[in-house]
Amino acid sequence: MTGALGNTLKELLSSTTGKTGVAFFITMVAISVFALTTNPLDFGVRLWNNPSEWADNPKNVPPGWIGGGVKHTVFEATEPTEVRQTARGVESVYAFDLDYGYDDAPTFTSFSLERVSYDTRPTTVTVSVERPDGRAVSLYRHVVPAPRPGETPPVVRYEDTPFRVFLTGETSVAGEVSRFLQSEFGAQIPATELVGEIDRAVFGTPDAQGGGEFQPLKGDYRIRVLARSSGAQDSIGGVKFVVGGSSFGLMGTDSIGRDLARGLIFGFPVALTIGLVTAVMATVIGTTMGIISGYTGGKTDISIQRFCDVLTNIPLLPILLFLAFILGQKLWIVVAVMIVFGWPGLAIVIRSMVLQIRSGQLMEATAALGASRWRIMFRHIFPQMAPFVFAQMIFFTPAAILAEAGLSFLGLGDPSIPTWGQILDQGFRTGAVYVGYWWWVLPPGILIVLTALTFVLIALGMERVVDPRLRMARQ
Amino acid sequence: MSLLEVRDLRMHYATREAVVRAVDGITFGLERGQALGIVGESGSGKTSLSLALMRLLPRNATGYSGEVTLEGENIAALSDDGFRQLIRWKRMSMVFQGAMNSLNPVLKVGHQVAEPYLQANRGGKGPAQERTLELFDLVRLPGEVVNRYPHELSGGMKQRVMIAMSLVLNPSLVILDEPTSALDVSIQAQMMNLLKDLKRDLGISFIFITHDIALASDLCDRIAVMYGGQIVELGSSEDVFLSPKHPYTQRLLDSIPRLTSEEAPVFISGAPPDLTAPPIGCRFSPRCPFAFEPCADRVPPAFIVKEGHESRCWLLEQGQ
Amino acid sequence: MSIAKTLAIRALTLLGVLFAVLVMVAVTLGATGFSDRMLTAIVNEEVRGLRQGLAQTVRDPDQIERAIQEHRRELEESYDLDRPWYFRLPGMIGRVVMLDLGEARTLKTADGSSKITSLIAERLPRTMLLVTTASAITAVFGLLFGVKLATKVGTRADRIASLFSATSNALPAWWAGILLILLTYLVLSAFGVRVFPPGGMYSVPPPEGVIPRFIDLLWHAALPIITLVLISVGSWTYVVRTMVMNTAQEDFVTVARAKGLPEGRVMRHHILRVAAPPILTGLILGLASSVAGGILTETVFNWPGMGRLYYDAILAVDESVVVALTFMFTLIYITARFTLEVLYIIVDPRVRYQ
């Protein structure tokens, strides 16, 4: 039996298709291992479907390697650049330098504070931008909430969830910027019109003729975060300032800013698990039932065959949809249903092979020698079919992966585990396909096809082992 | 003028690993109205020879060469299409081994018999039907069989259909490839009688391919013994059967179990030669009990034992 | 065994399949409490209607309440809601078998009917239009290429074709559809030409006149049909090629050649006649399963057929439609299989006399 599988492997590696398939497979396994070691197992619930995790990413932007546009920049600091003692207490300055040379404004700007602790007077934080033209614009002022009645110092705020403000959409910021434009350029632009457009004003100069248009202002910017506190015992865990880019990461982002590359990478172990678990289980059950059916004969045979007949005549997709719809969107249910509907087809083929082998003389001889039924079935019959069974298993794998992808695409995927099909589904439902967000819909599809193709190629490479007739024809 | 002259016919075919020299320099002749038996064990190239004669080359055939003269015309020189149109079934037809699979399962047998007749435009459907019925009568099949499908017929009936089919265009030569090996012994005897009658009544020439030398000597005027893709002995049935000169022929005859003899049948030890790398000299030499100095290295020529009887064995060199 | 008996056994098996699916669907609905919720929703709907009606005529709230409670009890009794779900199984299965499929909760036909049978009657022809056209095109191309390739087994063309077939095996129809939509979008944004519409069945508003409307329909059907053909023609070609190749190795084909028949006749009369039944099987089963597979393609192209209806029913959580369509898909599938058995008997004499 090891001999048969060894030969199969040798034959597999002797063909180009087989070699390509095996190489793909090894790559996928490597990526899967990487994905599982670098991500928590509850990636789906804890990270992927948690919007705050992705809040600082730009939305609906193409991959970074596409070039052009504003580069996504995240400034983070835990220690202030400068600390000044003043009469009223301590001033900590966090300064970030930004060399801005783009023709567009950032897609957004945001600011976050983490773990602020103070003794008596709440810390005050202000955010301002010094522009290359020497003007400075104050954007935002924030006072950390006062102590609650009965709360004893030190007072700690923003420990579990950071304080985050989306500057681009903040009305108070719009007011500040409106006043800035008025005083520096004499431009009359009401704050309400500036909400959402703030960055174009901050990183540009208003057109002389007005009309609310801005010319981008290139050069060196300095973002200053100033924290005033009463004494040295007060502290700030970290500040963050994000200049939203017009491209992101390896694979771009979706409509809630998720880094698609991470979702795609996590999709590898999921797809492989779905495919392999389904295929292995369906093959094991199918082979066992087929051998039992063919070797035992009689009533057992008839009932197994009738049962298989019924199951193979049921169209899989509607039933799968129905069950996922009724029983809930759980990955294991989908896998279980595919196993239940997958094995009968194989059992029918295996049975007819067993009938052929059983009538052979070797079997009669072994039976005459007094070998037990089970021994004959699994020591003598099974090894003869091993390569075929193995090929069937490989062939079944892409079917399972494609079925799950289709189901996910219809919105019946398991929400706790991100799959390529789900990413595609979200892309399709949010209309990404109609507005040309190719980075959202192409890669998951390509990965689904490549994964399925991997197994098809391996199966194709094994064709010669399994079908001796073909071996003759290729000679 | 003899009916068929074959000179140095070769057909090799390539597998992934090597070239199989299945037909490797065959030379023989056949007179009109005579039957030639080609005898040899399985793998000796008998069937490949018949396919080479019909030019039904397998897809992987390489090195097809030699001269085949049918009624004075070198048919090996014809183009493939010319060969198909002029020779196949019209002048040379064949009854294939294993009648089970030789008939198309989804066509009525009568249609399959008449098909070459219609194709050759010897007349319309009516005459074709008549001809089929006439042939069925000849091979002793009831006329209603024409409307049956192959799976409704017994093995013997199918073989008769195949024989009828081979005769439909009145060929001068019919090649019979193991026509009886798949049949029961009683049916085999009927079939042999039928063939003898056909030979006598119609004056058709046969090439009768079989592994059974006794059967061959019963029907055939001459016998060629094949071994390893070559003819090792060729002579009249009596000469080959009664005084075989090649050690292989002798072993072959000794291996037939005889009811009347006390001697146990002798089996030929060793395995048939590997035709991808046959022995350099005589191909039988590794298995031959009489092998001596020249056998392993030099190919034996055809030694004339007597008029019309030749054998390729170095033992005969001294006798000449 | 006689033909009639063979067919009868097949028919019984397939009816068994239909029955099994129905029971499975019904039991799943019952055991998960879905069926209770479905019926309760219907009862609530009717009670609400009654309450509104009564509120206009009757003044006394207690009287209304009593009447409503009475009515609710009657309704629950009539729907068997007062008994465990398995008592409803026979009735439910019986109704579905009689094609009494009930009413959809939210989905409606173009002329406003919410009867599920009318919904299906409206949608099925549209699905058939896609599926049959695509299958016909696929069959023709597959046969032409497959037969051609069978004579070239092992050549470069054959290897390329088998690779293409492998790829199309791995290519889900819905993703191919998305690709095509994306492609037409790119063409639109690059050249300003809308080659094919990304979805729907008619332009909005639809053109006047029968012929322009028909052309509009074809224009909208083109992309889904191209998708279906694209993903199935490869494997179909491969199936034909393998069938023809296997048959071409049979002894009777050598005999046919020996008989001096020209290659064309050997192919048509001897190889294809024998390879036809399995090829036919592939075609009809492909057709049957693409009706169900249309769920995805129709969703992608927003084609208002049976598949899209199924998708909409899932989105709208319209259980009765989901159940009815699951049943319909199975019915279509097994009808196709039975047709196949009958056709097989016509085409293959071996089956006829077994």
Structural summary, described in words:
- Chain A is built from 15 helices and 12 strands.
- Chain A has helices at residues 2-14, 16-38, 43-48, 171-185, 191-194, 198-202, 260-296, 298-312, 316-327, 331-358, 361-368, 373-412, 420-429, 438-466, 468-474; strands at residues 73-77, 82-86, 89-100, 109-118, 124-130, 136-143, 155-157, 163-166, 204-206, 214-216, 219-229, 235-243.
- In chain A, strands 1, 4, 7, 8 and 12 form a 5-stranded antiparallel sheet that branches.
- Chain A is elongated.
- Chain A starts with a helix and ends with a helix.
- Mean pLDDT of chain A is 86; it is low at 468-475.
- By secondary structure, chain B is α/β, with parallel strands linked by helices.
- Chain B is 30% helix and 23% strand.
- Chain B is built from 10 helices and 12 strands.
- In chain B, α4 crosses α5 (125-138), α4 packs parallel to α6 (155-167) and α5 (125-138) crosses α6 (155-167).
- Chain C is an all-alpha fold and 354 residues long.
- Chain C has 13 helices and no strands.
- Chain C is globular, with a radius of gyration of 26 Å.
- In chain C, 40% of the residues are buried.
- At the A-C interface, α8, α9, α12, α14 and α15 of A face α1, α6, α7, α10 and α11 of C.
Radius of gyration of chain C: 26 Å
The percentage of residues in β strands of chain C lies in under 5%
Largest chain-chain contact? A-C, 48 and 56 residues
For this structure, the quaternary state is: heterotrimer
Tell me the span between the first and last alpha carbons of chain C.
6 Å
- Average pLDDT of chain A, to the nearest integer? 86
Report strand % of chain A: 15-25%
Structure classification of chain A: alpha+beta
The unreliable regions of chain A are 468-475
- Helices of chain C, by number, come to 13
Number of strands of chain A: 12
